[in-house]
Amino acid sequence: AQSVTQLDSQVPVFEEAPVELRCNYSSSVSVYLFWYVQYPNQGLQLLLKYLSGSTLVESINGFEAEFNKSQTSFHLRKPSVHISDTAEYFCAVTKASGGSYIPTFGRGTSLIVHP
Amino acid sequence: KAGVTQTPRYLIKTRGQQVTLSCSPISGHRSVSWYQQTPGQGLQFLFEYFSETQRNKGNFPGRFSGRQFSNSRSEMNVSTLELGDSALYLCASSLDGARSTGELFFGEGSRLTVL
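^ inputs. structure came back:
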């Protein structure tokens, strides 16, 4: 079985400051890792994903995440946040092989960007 | 390509009633999953349908049921509503699970309030 831990339920930060949202997972098999973002009154949208290859993955809006196998982590970072980044962020993991799959989601981290 | 469409977006029911929610996946996607999202429990998996068959099921009582039609559209039904069923119900679609990376495409959700 897989599990995902998002260590912070809420992260307040000032605009233009850097931010890191932490995600740790546990799994006995190889995994794919995802970060989803949920803006108020909307569904989840994929922000970025790690499938294989380079352990550093980037999104089009400046976020990046690094897969660290030894620490079983996939932390999300942004060097300078904007007000519009205020949202709920979910880390998710699925197994990398096998037919059927069900992603396991973390509890979410609420990023609150203050002006 | 149209995204995942969920209807209705908002609805209010009273205890004991039943409700049916609808989801139209992205064209070509054959897997449809349903999630319940609440502030206290986060994202909880309800069930997944693939080619009109329930392929996976979460840990919810039998009052929660679903089905998928030949065009991949899906419905979920909750009978004998309880106050605790108030939640955002999210539908997500994806490609064939055997070839999929586990990435989900979410609808905007149906917000159910039970009075």
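Chain B has a mean pLDDT of 92. Chain B has no helices and eleven strands.
thumbs up if we can close this ticket
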